[in-house]
Amino acid sequence: MGKKGKKEKKGRGAEKTAAKMEKKVSKRSRKEEEDLEALIAHFQTLDAKRTQTVEAPCPPPSPRLNASLSVHPEKDELILFGGEYFNGQKTFLYNELYVYNIRKDTWTKVDIPSPPPRRCAHQAVVVPQGGGQLWVFGGEFASPNGEQFYHYKDLWVLHLATKTWEQVKSTGGPSGRSGHRMVAWKRQLILFGGFHESTRDYIYYNDVYTFNLDTFTWSKLSPSGTGPTPRSGCQMSVTPQGGIIIYGGYSKQRVKKDVDRGTRHSDMFLLKPEDGREDKWVWTRMNPSGVKPTPRSGFSAAMALNHQTLFFGGVCDEEEEESLAGEFFNDLYFYDATRNRWFEGQLKGPKSEKKKRRRGRKEESEGGSKLACGGAGTQGPVQVVKEVVAEDGTVVTIKQVLAAPGSAGQPRSEDEDSPEEAGSSAPGPCPRSNAMLAVKHGVLYVYGGMFEAGDRQVTLSDLHCLDLHRMEAWKALVEMDPETQEWLEETDSEEDSEEVEGAEGGDEDEDEDSREESGAED
């Protein structure tokens, strides 16, 4: 009894601490969110000028990350919404809606009256009701300099049959956040985690909410058992048995004044109804077998064949007191909930060493590699290691591994009946984080994302696909050359803060002009 009482008391203490922190963050962030509300209102005024839905053929969308890519439930289409782009000086956010026709390999931009405000790091879930509905919750809006954030707590639905947006207002829902995860479960939406950040403070969540698609009401769940610690950017998927898997994610905590330490989570939990009751849920810690992904953040996930969860890419930042190094990935993993087992996804054909991209705060000196996006090197595996000292005295380690076709690959999965076996040297999406994934008819689609090369952030707009039935080779549907992307160096001038409208788009003409100048067409 003593241990149980102590544990329960500790749990209540943690809840009180979290409540105090949320109140503190809310108070400090209220002022900056009020500042951003005026900018958001300005863009909504521009959006309100649309009086009818206009669908127009268009080139592939501009580079972006943290958008949503969803599968139409009835048509051979992918739906891209929102996202962000940073050109070195200014942050752009989008609320554009694009439709990719899989069979025709064509893009269409769909302008619909009264859309949700511009955002990124939201969640979008498709359900089949009424000819198909795309539900969107939360996300964030950033100031042009990327230093202030507004976190949404609104819920929207796009009626795919009529191509109309509708804001669904219901009390009792989650607080404003981004980086959360949301899935469709029976006739409900279930939402977990995320974070809220202001200029000086932040808070991560591990709460669970459900939204009933019949009654349009929110409910907060209080599952029994020990669940995941607060985090954002995790994997959330529904199992064939009706449970919900939570894997990985990222969080950070303050270790001392102005010093934060990030945590890349690699634990897994199962959330399921207790005794078949939908009003009572329980957490269970999972320990899957097989070849597990290495710890990372910024990975992407999608439901694949046979109810398996597909896991792609991400980045591993090696944080130390005086240095920063990171590694981007383009590898594939599959989690089979039925067998509680991980499999490494490898393509058929000659084996090749997993391609990696290393990052640091400063680029390599003259003679360093260019911004290659795609295949491996041709001279055999070469690891380039450099240490440079930044202006603030920070030592940055920069490493890059170039692998030759036919070099040694990763170990195969033990189960011969898995489709994710055998090595591959086929070129595909370059290493990246925060990409968008979707699976339709057993084909995986990977769009956009980002990687870093020294101080430069490269935002991608390429589109690749992979037949998960065959697991043979990637196919590039839209290619891009990162070398052509404009990158503006930071400036100490105050002009950026004075050009708020131009930075985030201003009026529609300014918006188009600024993006054409930066090579990011709408």
Automatic annotation (TrEMBL):
Transmembrane segments: none annotated. It comes from the Eukaryota. Residues 1-33, 346-378, 402-432, 481-522 are annotated as: Disordered. Residues 11-24 have a biased composition (Basic and acidic residues). Pfam families: Kelch_KLHDC2_KLHL20_DRC7. Residues 1-10 have a biased composition (Basic residues). This is Kelch domain containing 4.
